Every structure is written in C-alpha cells, then in structure tokens.
Amino acid sequence: MVRRWFLLGESPLHAARQLALLLAVGALLTVVKLLSVPAAQQGIYLALAALQAAAAAAAWCPIWRRLPPQAPLVLTLPAFTVLATSIWAAGGVAAAAAPFFVLVFVWIGLHFPARTVLAVTPVALAAYLGPMLLAGRDPAVITSAILFIPTLTAVAVMIARQVDHHRRDRDALRRAERWRAALTSTLAHDVRSPLTSVRFVLETLHDEAEALPPDQRRTLIETALRQAARIHRLAAGLLDADRIDAEGRLRLETTSVPLRSAIDDALAYLTTPITVHLAGDVKVRADPARLEQILINLLTNAVRHGEPPITVTVRPAPGAMVAIDVRDHGPGVPPGRRQALFSRFSGTDAAPGSVGLGLWIARELARAHGGDVTYHPADPGTRFTVTLPAVDPAPPPVDEGARS
C-alpha cells in the first residue's frame, strides 16, 4: 500500500512523486506494448521505457523537498519527449499518447498557477503536433490536433484556478481557527489574572469591610477598578481586532482632544513612572476612547519590554500632524523581528500568555484616524511614534516632569 504522505500534498516533493507515478505507469505500459510492435521498433520502445523509468526514479528522490516550488516542472521535459517519440513511432497516431497528455496537464493544473500552464502550452503543442507533421498526417487530423492542446490548456487553467480558490479558502479557515485559538488563549491567561485580583478585593471587602481603615478600603477599590479597566481594554481590543478583520475599518467619533488630559488618563492605568514632554494645550482630532487605547497599548508595550527611563514626547509633524513619541531604554527589537513588528499574532508585543495584538491594533486605530504608528530604533531602546491630525499647530516640546 502506498502511504498517503508519499503522494498527497502541495510541496515540490509531492508534485514530483505524483508525476513519478505517472511516468512509472507509462514505462510499464510501454514494456507491455513491446509485445505487440514489430521487432524493428522494439528498440525504440525499450529506450522509451528506460527513459520513463529513469525519469520516474529521479522524480521519486527526496531531493525535491529542498528545491523551489517550480522545480518539478523540469520533469515535463522527459515526459513530453517520451510522448512525442511514441507518437512518431506510431506513425503520427496519438491515440495512445493523448491520455497521458491529459494527465500531465491535470498534474500541472493541480500544482502550479495558471500562468505556468500557459507557459508550458507551446512545448506541449510542439510535442503533440511535431511528430504528426513529420509523419505527414492529413490536414483534418492536424486541425483536430491543433484544437486538442488548447482544450487541455483551458482545462488545466480551470483546475489551477479552482485549486487556488480552495487554497485561499483553506488559508482563511486557518486564520479563523488561529483567531479563535488566540481568543481562547487570551481569555485563559490575560483575563484570569485581573479577575483573580477583582475577586480577592470583593472577598476582602465582603469579609472585612468594617475592620479595614478607609485608606486601605480605597486602595483595594482602586485596585479592583484598575483590573476591571484592564479587562475592559482587553475586550475592546479583541472586538476592535474582530471588526478590523471583518470590515477592514472602524467607525470613529472624532472630536478635538487635548493631549495633556489624554496622556494623563492613559498613565493612570500604569504604576511605572513615565516622563512627559509636552508644551501648551496641544489638541488632536481623534476619537477619545480610541486615542486612549492607542496610548495605553504603546505605553504598556514600553513597560513590558523596555527599561526606564520611559518618556512620552509630543512634537509637531509634517502635514498638519502631531507626533507622539514613546521611548524606552531597553534592549530594543532584534533586526530579524522588525519586519513583523506590527503583524497580528507576531508575538513581538506579546507577554507570556498574550496574543500579541497591541501594536497591530494601535497601528490600525491610528490609520483609521488618518495617521500611523511607526517604529524607530533608539540607542539604546526603542521609539514608537504615533501621528494624528492636529487641531492647532503643535509647539516645540518642553520637559514638564514625571507622570505616573
């Protein structure tokens, strides 16, 4: 029994081994045909059988797994050579070779894009018509043969298109499955910790509320509110990612937002001291809730992966924009990970148990505002810059001290 993984798949190895099976069957049928051909032609068919067997052996070698996806196409050269020679040996009669032309075109359509089918067509046409012309077949036969290869081309192109369609559907299903797995992972890890804190606070207040000093009760309540806000941000981020994935954009309720208050509100969720450089009452055109989410995502990323001091600097940017730089002094982002920095699920901005959506969501939200989020290496550390439309011209930044 032929093992399934030897033949079924989409790698160059699977493609080569499928054609190897066709070549081996062709070699076997050629050997059988030796019994019914004149002795003068047996040498030709014996050579054809040997060529097919050698090509089948080469196609079966494991080396194809290390070659580019288009590499198995070279195997069509011995296949078409054998088919052309068999038509010539049969006096220009293609009855025996035609089914193998069909199988080769089907194989090409299954494993290669439609443009490859079109590129191979002239070679196949020469292999099919050349022997007939050399044998002097009458024009009616030649005309029907001329129509045969374009028909095979159309069939192979339809197969290639259909395979590509199914491949895209499968990739979409895989992305959806990965998205569901990410949601499960997030709920299992990111939500459990803040829920545990909220539950602890509620149980403490339930059992010891009267015995606790007012300051301690206030601290516990603030802790619970902060953790509840963390859960809310997580849920909002996941919903945003789902909307972006489904609709490609977000609906925003933009207004004039003072950056000072927006930054202070975002810093209230953090306990790490962060220095803010901002002069005057700079305002941006933004959705307040989305702006807060952008800032929290970038600041949280800096706290998780960077090192103090962490700074936020507001400065004017070209095109009537405001730039907000979030700078840390940590180890920075390795060069190999920078290209996928803003990719969903890249893990670049993900702490253990997280799904790595923060930077991706921040960029998508900024772009929905007409701005962007970009990465710049610093020495040391990293600098993420979010640009947003300015309401008033932004003055040069000045240091106004630490915020937390």
UniProtKB/TrEMBL annotation:
It catalyses: ATP + protein L-histidine = ADP + protein N-phospho-L-histidine. Its main location: membrane. Keywords: Kinase, Membrane, Phosphoprotein, Transferase, Transmembrane, Transmembrane helix, Two-component regulatory system. The keyword Transmembrane helix applies. It is found in: Cell membrane. GO terms for molecular function: kinase activity. The chain crosses the membrane at residues 15-32, 44-67, 87-110, 117-134, 140-160. Its EC number is 2.7.13.3. It holds the Pfam family HATPase_c. InterPro entries: HATPase_C_sf, HATPase_dom, His_kinase_dom, HisK_dim/P_dom, HisK_dim/P_sf, Sensor_HK_Regulatory, Sig_transdc_His_kin-like_C. Residues 186-392 form the Histidine kinase domain. The keyword Magnesium does not apply. PANTHER family: HISTIDINE KINASE 1, TWO-COMPONENT HISTIDINE KINASE. This is histidine kinase. The lineage of its organism: Bacteria, Bacillati, Actinomycetota, Actinomycetes, Streptosporangiales.
